[in-house]
Specification:
By secondary structure, the protein is an all-alpha fold. Helices cover about 70% and strands about 0% of the residues. The protein contains 2 helices and no strands. The longest helix is centred in the last third of the chain and has 55 residues.
């Protein structure tokens, strides 16, 4: 590291070698990435690693497409049923509120009899 400096690194600046190392690594990584990019641009067929679909791959793709279609249809059905359940839940909640309100009015408006009125 001291070769890059005209004078010896003083102990009062301990962060200098670390920052130089980071900058050096950044420059080397940039050069390496540029070289790889250049190589790929010169030889574009190296980027194409996936083989062309063969009969077996086409069959597997067809099966996957069918399964995806089936899952999509099932998903639509589940969403429809979820909406039905949500509507039923809301209706039950509304009915429960009405029953609670009716029960409240019934118990508060019905006079209590000090004597045994239930027999009447």
């Amino acid at each position: 590291m001291e070769l890059a400096f005209l004078r010896q690194i003083q102990p009062r600046s301990p962060g200098v070698p670390g920052s130089i190392n980071r900058r050096y690594r950044i420059v080397l990584n940039t050069i390496e990435a540029s070289m790889r990019t250049e190589d790929l641009l010169k030889h574009p067929n190296r980027c194409q690693r996936a083989p062309k679909p063969t009969g077996e791959l086409q069959q597997t793709n067809q099966q996957l497409a069918e399964k995806a279609q089936l899952l999509a249809e099932q998903n639509v059905e589940v969403e429809r049923k979820n909406r039905e359940v949500e509507l039923a839940r809301q209706a039950l909640e509304e009915k429960a509120k009405q029953l609670a309100l009716a029960s409240k009015y019934k118990s508060s408006s019905w006079p209590t009899c000090p004597m045994n009125c239930e027999r009447l």
